[in-house]
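Hey L., structure's done. Input below.
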Amino acid sequence: MPVSVEQIRTLRAETGAGVADCKRVLEETQGNLEKAAEILRQHGLVQAARRSDRATNQGLIEAYVHTGGRVAAMVELGCETDFVARTPEFKVLAHDIAMQVAAMAPSYLDKTDIEDGDDRPVAQVSLLQQPFIKDNSSSVADIIQEVAVKVGENVRVLRFTRLALGE
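Output:
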């Protein structure tokens, strides 16, 4: 079954994969966009795992101040190149994570950072394990991973802070 240009364009927009990869996977799945997207995501996750030890010396700092000015958050989001740091996907991710920090007030970046004796639920205190506020079916770590797959680089939250009046 021949694959249409529109199918390739749709799959590419959804996954961020290259044109040749989109065409190949669509041909393998006989034009099934869902199966093709899943195959590309799995392939991207494997590649992202290989990149996870790369240095993230570039990136940006995003600040978010909630309406009313009583709560604010700053997030340092790292990537490998300044080119990726300037992409819309990266900027939106940084903003969304800053909103997450302001709204959910995590105490730790990852579950491995949780101090002994802190009995609060991991999903409450660890930023990366929290359900993403814009899509509760995914964790913050899942959302970061999706962007890493799309941009083809290692992406990670380096640090964050939250300020609230009276706290």
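Residues 112 and 160 are 16 Å apart (CA to CA). The mean pLDDT is 86.

-- N.
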